[in-house]
């Protein structure tokens, strides 16, 4: 009995804490050019996790479309988007965050998916409906990695 | 010194690259017959000047499989369809061959489908086959992308191989074509992409290890190395939609039929390659 109560209390405390720190997709404030100044979570992004997300086909899958020399060990880098070597020299962190969350705010008509947007789509497959491609923390992790590409 | 020593390596890499993708200048010939795998885009295409068969974008070894009917794995299924053609099925005690002397009678059909029939409906070859089965043979319908259907589509399509694709888009077809065109440019799914995102804006580019084609359907049904079977047009549409995390339309739906007409019209002028080989 006591154990259950404690676990419950801990769970409530934990979840409310993480909710308070995470910005929901609908609450994001984009700047004039599609940039996002504020981090989506209270936890700093992790570069190593971000690097994995970058190449993971079910997550960022960034390599599908972009060349990234830092991942020369991976074969077949895509050619659909611009090369990402030095991308952090061309865009600041807020701009990169905006591009990852929803690049259509900056580049109208781009093929690039919005990685943190959960509505406004057509005919989304049921298991992805109402969901974002990446979680808020995954966006921050990926951003932390992309920011190292100088 | 360093430059000279690097040069042979660079040449090596260039040679390797040309082996991997033969590119837009290779020629498809099968048993001495030359196929039109690139030609001027039909007048209705606004954003593309030249159209290319999907064969153009495949690797040398995949291209080669289509250049010899003995190597082309599709012909296993074509042979099955030839047997099926003679096979009695259904309550009327008929086979295809009871009414159609041979498959050769279907010469030219594949090049002009889908089309609008006298009732004003857009019709496709699978529907013609199933109408024959239910109305004349008293047999069960075949599944749209089932083995028997895709094999029979291969056999019927083969009779038009080498002919230029020429589907009608005007007159009674116009409204279906407009609907198909709207679907082609409609973004769908969580990845929020349209057919045009990949097959009009990015053909020729690599998307990871896949060389993006123009998405032409002149070779369907096509044998894919990926699943080792003949794949139908609507089956492929469905696969593409799932890839972009969209709920696919149903095979045989009005949406896919209209899309088929529109996509077929983008290949008007290319040779029918049925049954083609792709990856």
Q: What shape does the CA trace of chain A take?
A: globular
**Helix amount of chain B, in percent?**
25-40%
| CATH 2nd-level architecture of the largest domain in chain B | Orthogonal Bundle
Shape of chain B: globular
What is the average per-residue confidence, as pLDDT of chain A, rounded to a whole number?
91
Count of separate structural domains of chain B: 2
Main sheet makeup of chain B: 3 strands, mixed
Approximate strand percentage of chain A: under 5%
How many helices of chain B does DSSP assign? Answer: 10
Count of alpha/pi helices of chain A: 5
Describe the structure.
Chain A has 150 residues and is mainly alpha-helical. Chain A has a single domain, classed as Cytochrome Bc1 Complex, Chain D, domain 2. Chain A contains 5 helices and no strands. Chain B has 279 residues and is of the alpha+beta class. Chain B folds into 2 domains: 24-72 and 167-278, Cytochrome c-like domain (Cytochrome Bc1 Complex, Chain D, domain 2); 75-158, Cytochrome Bc1 Complex, Chain D, domain 2. Chain B is built from 10 helices and 11 strands. Chain B has helices spanning 2-20, 60-66, 74-86, 96-99, 125-137, 147-158, 174-184, 195-199, 233-243, 254-266; strands spanning 29-30, 33-34, 38-40, 50-52, 115-116, 122-123, 206-207, 210-211, 222-224, 229-231, 276-278. In chain B, the strands form 5 sheets. Chain B has a 3-stranded mixed β-sheet. Chain B is globular and about 50 Å long. The A-B interface holds A 57, 61, 63-65, 75-80, 111, 113-114, 121-126, 128, 131, 133 and B 186-193, 197-198, 201-202, 205-209, 212, 241-242, 245-247.
């Amino acid at each position: 009995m006591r154990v259950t109560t404690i676990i419950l209390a801990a769970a409530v405390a934990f979840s409310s804490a993480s909710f308070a720190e995470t910005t929901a997709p609908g609450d994001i404030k984009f700047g004039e050019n599609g940039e996002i100044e504020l981090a989506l979570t209270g936890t700093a992004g992790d570069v190593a996790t971000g690097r994995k997300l970058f190449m993971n086909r079910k997550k960022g899958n960034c390599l599908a479309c972009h060349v990234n020399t830092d991942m020369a060990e991976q074969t077949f880098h895509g050619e659909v988007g611009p090369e990402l070597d030095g991308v952090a020299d061309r865009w600041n962190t807020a701009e990169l965050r905006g591009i990852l969350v929803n690049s259509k705010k900056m580049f109208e008509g781009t093929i690039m998916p919005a990685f943190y947007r959960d509505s406004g789509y057509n005919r989304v497959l049921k298991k992805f409906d109402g969901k974002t491609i990446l979680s808020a923390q995954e966006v921050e992790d990926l951003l932390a990695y992309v920011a190292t590409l100088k | 010194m360093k430059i000279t020593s690097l040069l042979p390596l660079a040449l090596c890499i260039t040679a390797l690259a040309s082996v991997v993708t033969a590119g837009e200048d290779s020629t498809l010939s099968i048993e001495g017959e030359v196929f039109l795998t690139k030609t001027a885009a039909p007048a209705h295409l606004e954003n593309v000047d030249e159209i290319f068969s999907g064969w153009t974008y495949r690797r040398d070894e995949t291209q080669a499989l289509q250049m010899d009917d003995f190597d082309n794995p599709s012909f296993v299924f074509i042979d099955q369809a030839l047997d099926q053609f003679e096979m009695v099925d259904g309550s009327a005690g008929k086979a295809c061959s009871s009414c159609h002397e041979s498959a050769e009678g279907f010469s030219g059909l594949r090049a002009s489908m889908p089309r609008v029939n006298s009732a004003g409906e857009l019709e496709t070859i699978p529907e013609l086959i199933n109408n024959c089965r239910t109305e004349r043979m008293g047999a069960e319908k075949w599944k749209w992308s089932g083995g028997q259907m895709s094999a029979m589509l291969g056999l019927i399509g083969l009779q038009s191989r080498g002919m230029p694709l020429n589907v009608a888009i005007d007159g009674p077809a116009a409204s279906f074509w407009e609907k198909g065109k709207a679907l082609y440019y409609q973004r769908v799914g969580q990845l929020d992409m349209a057919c045009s995102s990949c097959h009009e804006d990015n053909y020729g580019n690599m998307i990871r290890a896949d060389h993006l084609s123009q998405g032409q359907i002149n070779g369907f049904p096509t044998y894919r190395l990926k699943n080792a079977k003949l794949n139908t047009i609507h089956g492929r549409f469905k696969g593409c939609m799932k890839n972009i995390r969209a709920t696919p339309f149903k095979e045989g739906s009005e949406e896919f039929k209209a899309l088929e007409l529109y996509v077929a019209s983008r290949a008007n002028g290319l040779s029918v390659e049925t049954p083609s080989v792709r990856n």
